[in-house]
Amino acid sequence: MRAYVLISGAVFGAVALAHAIKLFLDWPIQVAGWVLPIWVSWIAILAGGTLCVWAFRLVGQRQM
Description:
Mean pLDDT: 92
Shape: elongated
Oligomer: single chain
Helix content: over 70%
């Protein structure tokens, strides 16, 4: 269970970081001809960052 939470936290952190880089460098993301709006990246940073922090705090609090 501990490995699963660590890997999940790392993946969520990577997604949040990717969206932060997208915003910083102003890279467009296009899915099937639809351009991803900027506000979606802000939500992804917030959600991914929150889940990342939650996962790492969970691992640090107790032995799994």
